[in-house]
Write a structure and sequence with these properties.
The chain has about 475 residues and is mainly alpha-helical. About 70% of the residues lie in helices and about 0% in strands. The N terminus and C terminus are likely disordered.
Length: about 475
């Protein structure tokens, strides 16, 4: 029994002696058909672009894996691979991470088997997805597919994963995926941190002494922040000290500040949980000590002093490394557009064009509120807010959501699909200590509230 089969995957055969899935019948036909399909795909792809060739071949391999095992096997492989693509994001083509992220979200959605529960929350979710999607479709119809399709594909990831959080019915397999996501992310972050601290490989972005390893700073900070928050959501035990300390060091050492307010809020909310304050304080102390001993705290200090020299705190235009100017330009362009564009937005990928015309650099929105509000209009923004509301209402662990929401507000999380998928997947789980195999769960009341992420429920009774 191989590794995939050992986690419960099955080779599925349909009944009947003449079934196409019977190995005695279909082996030669399948081989011939697959060879022909792959040859056509590669030939067509090479005549158009190497990228298209890669997509064809990747889709073919993915279909082969699904046919031999099942969707859960694909989801496990993709979920385990995604964090490693995140921590090597600075040496990979961007479309690789985008393609794998979309495939992972789709596989998780298929495994979770979300179903309409007929509740008020279900209605809000579908309304939010519709309002968010309509301006995207209008933009694609108006401007054509082209490069806009890439941003549209990125935007699809969020509603798909919120759907999983709100209405998943296959909680058993979702627990397995969550476990894979957490530990694969932790090992990938640790490996990348070692590369950076030892100097084996360390890219720089802010030139403030940050430790990035092979990763791009923003995706690494978001992934590490979500893992750290998920660690705090678990059973509080000193056994988690290395996990929490490593996540905190990796988050702070990137020099990216957008995750820090959300991570701080997650810790405060966790400390408010009855009966675990002293233990949380002890773990926070260990994490803070690790941040200072590793030198990661110096990165934040260096960024603060650099911001002071650049006048970052003296005017709104300079706020947040120039985000104030970016926001002003984007919102001004939207305000001066037509009433129709107020409603459905100026269109995908229009903010970089606006910023390049006004500021000379093709900046993105640097905030989901600004980017969606301008490009998808009031309709799209309302849809986004509704989906966030549903995510917080239905998530079993809101701590990773605090990190994601903070990043969404100050940098924009929709553009960083890899860590977004991992963070939202971690938000589907609550009893990390039991499911990840560390520590004992504290005894708590069996009621569910978004502000009390320490609630313990049986898997069968958890809200999906």
């Amino acid at each position: 029994m191989n590794a995939l089969e050992s986690i419960g995957l099955r080779y599925r055969r349909s009944e009947g002696p003449l079934s196409i899935l019977d190995p005695e019948v279909h082996s030669r036909v399948t081989a011939l058909a697959a060879t022909a399909a792959l040859a056509i795909a590669v030939g067509v792809g090479l005549t158009v672009s190497p990228l298209l060739t890669g997509i064809f071949v990747g889709a073919f391999i993915l279909a082969a894996v699904i046919a031999w095992f099942d969707v859960l096997g694909v989801a496990v492989v993709l979920t385990a691979t995604l964090p490693w693509l995140v921590v090597t994001s600075d040496v990979l083509p961007r479309l690789v991470l985008t393609f794998v992220t979309g495939s992972t979200a789709a596989a998780i959605w298929l495994v979770a088997r979300p179903r309409n529960k007929g509740s008020h929350t279900s209605v809000l979710l579908r309304l939010g997805i519709t309002l968010f999607s309509v301006p995207i479709l209008i933009s694609l119809a108006r401007e054509g597919v082209g490069t806009d399709a890439i941003q549209a594909a990125k935007y699809v990831v969020f509603p798909m994963m919120v759907w999983v959080i709100a209405e998943a019915t296959n909680s058993r397999d979702l627990v397995a995926l969550r476990r894979v996501a957490f530990w694969s992310s932790f090992v990938a972050i640790t490996f990348n941190l070692v590369l950076g601290l030892t100097g084996i490989a360390n890219f720089r972005y802010y030139n403030s002494g940050e430790t990035l390893g092979l990763a791009s700073g923003h995706v690494l900070a978001l992934l590490a922040g979500c893992v750290t928050a998920a660690s705090f959501a678990s059973s509080i035990s000193l056994l988690w000290s290395p996990v929490i300390a490593t996540g905190a060091i990796a988050t702070v050492a990137t020099g990216v500040r957008s995750t820090l307010p959300g991570l701080a809020l997650a810790v405060i909310v966790r400390m408010s949980s009855a009966g675990v304050r002293l233990r949380v304080m002890a773990l926070v102390a260990v994490a803070v000590a690790g941040v200072f001993v590793s030198g990661a705290a110096g990165v934040v200090e260096a960024r603060f002093h650099k911001g002071e020299r650049l006048g970052e705190f003296q005017s709104f235009a300079n706020f947040g490394s120039g985000r104030g100017s970016i926001y002003e330009v984007a919102l001004s362009a939207w305000w001066n557009s037509s009433p129709i564009e107020w409603i459905v937005g100026t269109g995908l990928r229009t903010i970089p064009k606006i910023e390049e015309q006004r500021l000379g650099v093709a900046f993105v929105g640097h905030s989901d509120a600004v980017e969606v509000g301008v490009q998808l209009g009031v309709v799209g923004l309302i849809g986004l807010l509704l989906m966030w509301w549903v995510a917080f209402i239905r998530a079993q662990s809101v701590l990773p959501l605090f990190v994601l929401a903070s990043f969404a507000l100050f940098s924009g999380v929709l553009e960083y699909g890899g860590p977004l998928v991992i963070g939202l997947l971690l938000a589907t789980g609550l009893n990390a200590g039991r499911e990840f195999g560390l520590g004992k769960l504290p005894r708590t009341k069996s009621s569910m509230s978004w502000s009390t992420p320490t609630v313990v429920q049986s898997r069968s009774n958890r809200p999906a």
